[in-house]
Each structure stands twice: as C-alpha cells, then as structure tokens.
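step=encode ok
step=design start
structure_in=
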C-alpha cells in the first residue's frame, strides 16, 4: 500500500507514551481542572515545504490522496514539535455540507478557498418542498466528504483516528439555504416555517454525525473546531454556530437553543464555537444543556467577559486570529502566548490553547515559538 512506509515512520516518531502524556493533560482540562505540569497547547498550521496550500486543504479543496499524503507528511514534521497535538486525520470543512444533502449547489470562488452555496429556497413557504436529506448525490459536498473519510480509513488501515467534520448548527445551515436577509426577516414573519426548516436541519445533522461515527468504526475525535484540538468522546461533540455574531439573545433563545439542546442531549454533551464577536450572546449560550466547552478567537470575542459569564463551568478552547473585534488586540504570536498564559493562570481556568501560525513562518521560527510556549505555559 502506497502510504504504508509513511505510516510506519509516523508510528515510530510518535511513541504511545508521548501521546498519552498529552492526553493526560487534555483530559484534566476536559474535567475542568488544571494540569499538573503545563497548559496544553498546539501550534497550528506548521510550515510546509511540499507546496500544499493549507487553506485549500482546510476547505476540502484537494483530492483524497493528495490530502492524505500531505497530512501524513505533516505528522512527520509535527513530531519535531513538543506540543499536545494528537496524531489524527482531518477530512476538510465546508459551510454547505448539510445544505448539499438537500440539493444545494456550491460555487467555488478565489483559489479554491472561497466558496458559496446557492440558496435553495426562494421564499419561506418553500421549506415544505425540500427533498429528503441524502448522502448519495455524487456531485454533493457531503458525498465527497464521506467518500474521502472512507478512503482515509481504508488507506491507513485504521491506524489513525479521524476528526468528525463539523456540521454547523441548525440556524447556520438554514440561513445558507435562503437569501440571508430574507432568512433573518423570516425569523419574524414566518417563524413556523423557520422552525420546520430547523427541525429538518437538526435531523440531518444527527444523520451526518452518525454516519461518520460508523465510517470511522468508532475511532474518531469528536471535535473539528479546530482540527488541531482534541476532546474525549464521552464529552459529546463540537458544533459551530457561525451566526452568533449576527443575531440577538432572543433569536438564540427561540431559534438556536431548542435545537442545540436536542443535539447536546442526544450526544451527551456539546462544545460550541463561533467566529466573530458574540459577546452579546454569551449569557444565552450559557443556558445550553450539557455545555462542555466554548471555542472562540480571543481577538474576536472578549475573553474577560467570557470568563465572567462561564467561570470554571466549561473548558475553554482559545485561539488567536487576525480579526480584531475585541479588546484583546491583534498581536504577535509571542505576545499572544504571554497574554493568554497569564489569563489562564490568573483565573485558574481549564483551557487548551491553539497558536495560529500565519503563512510565511519558517520551521525554525515555528520551533522557536514552541520553546516560548513551553516557557509560558509551564506551571
């Protein structure tokens, strides 16, 4: 098998005791406790010299064989880093996964990293005409994602766990199936139809997550926000709600919470992620049933406000980004590491940290950043 030699090399570079040390730190954090030695962290998007664009990889832009080869090469290089990454595979991600199962057509935009799902519904009453949700339409995003997952599992003989692909929540999916402005107006003009659409989306989310669990034969990591993170299966699944910055707490209460609670209860827990500044919805999300963790960019949502709302009741997944929408200003990686380490230690909260690497960093620079992280995250 083409990938066998790479896999054997990876196994030798990642001894089980190393993986278990990182898992021990992460399990402490998921139990809402501080690890004994250091805050768990992962350096994201380490430099690549193979000519593979990681933005295209993350947005599911490469064929399955190219994606798998790149990820295995990355695992080799990752062995040089002393962080808490757990060796695993990632299938990719698109916002239109669930809509594609209803027949939504996707348009690829700039450099295969920007894409748009054409609205399926011209008006709210069209929700009653939606076809049955399906994985088997061969041109659909959802079909190709699942076929990739099967390919990864087969070609690696199941030697590496796979991350479940984030399906987004009911509102995030429903809002891509109509013109966005029309959708938000319909929350007020046609709430019955919107609830009907959200129920269809929720049923589809469960079917999609369940089929992934079957394909991976139970060997999965139930978080995809981001694919460098890790969580134990007993904590449920992670779900993005990438509309939280755009809606108010009343919208969350009426149109997000009921469906989020259903998913959380079904899987025994949930981790919520949203891009953007959703500080105005922190209190609303706090009411989610079985909420295990929250994931956000510290430069996007106010970290101090989040800690004030959630306290020590959740696991925090922090990452930096290059979007400035919170008091935590866009800083260098070094300053970010120092600042977030101080916040975690001062507040005595359970957290894991992702350190986002911009394009243009060399491997040597990334390894130096690794040393800075160890120094700051060690107790």
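sequence_out=
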């Amino acid at each position: 098998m083409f990938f066998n030699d790479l896999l054997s090399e990876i196994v030798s570079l990642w001894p089980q005791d190393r993986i278990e040390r990182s898992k021990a730190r992460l399990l402490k954090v998921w139990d809402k406790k501080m690890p004994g030695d250091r805050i768990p962290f992962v350096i994201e998007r380490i430099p690549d010299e193979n000519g593979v664009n990681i933005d295209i990889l993350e947005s599911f832009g490469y064929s399955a064989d190219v994606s798998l080869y790149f990820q295995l090469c990355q695992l080799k290089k990752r062995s040089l880093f002393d962080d808490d990454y757990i060796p695993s595979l990632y299938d990719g991600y698109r916002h239109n996964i669930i809509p594609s199962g209803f027949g939504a057509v996707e348009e690829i935009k700039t450099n295969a990293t920007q894409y748009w799902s054409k609205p399926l519904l011209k008006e709210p009453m069209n929700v009653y005409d939606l076809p049955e949700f399906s994985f088997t339409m061969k041109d659909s995003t959802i079909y190709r994602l699942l076929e990739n997952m099967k390919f990864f599992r087969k070609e690696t003989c199941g030697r590496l766990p796979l991350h479940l692909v984030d399906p987004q929540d009911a509102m995030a999916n429903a809002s891509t199936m109509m013109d966005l402005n029309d959708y938000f107006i319909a929350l007020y003009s046609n709430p019955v139809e919107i609830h009907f659409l959200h129920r269809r989306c929720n049923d589809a989310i469960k079917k999609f997550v369940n089929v992934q669990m079957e394909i991976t034969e139970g060997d999965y990591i139930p978080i995809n926000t981001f694919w460098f993170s890790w969580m134990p299966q007993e904590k449920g699944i992670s779900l993005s709600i990438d509309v939280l910055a755009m809606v108010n707490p009343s919208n969350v209460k009426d149109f997000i919470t009921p469906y989020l609670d259903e998913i959380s209860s079904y899987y025994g827990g949930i981790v919520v992620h949203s891009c953007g500044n959703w500080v105005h919805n922190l209190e609303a999300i706090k009411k989610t049933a079985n909420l295990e963790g929250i994931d956000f960019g510290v430069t996007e949502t106010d970290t101090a406000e989040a800690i004030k709302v959630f306290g020590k009741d959740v696991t925090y997944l922090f990452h930096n980004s290059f979007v400035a929408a919170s008091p935590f200003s866009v800083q260098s990686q070094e300053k970010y590491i120092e600042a977030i380490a101080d916040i975690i230690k001062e507040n005595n909260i359970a957290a894991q940290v992702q350190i986002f690497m911009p394009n243009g960093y060399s491997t040597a620079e990334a390894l130096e950043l690794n040393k800075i992280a160890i120094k700051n995250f060690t107790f």
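step=design ok
step=annotate ok -> The domain at 4-377 is CATH 3.20.20.210 (TIM Barrel).
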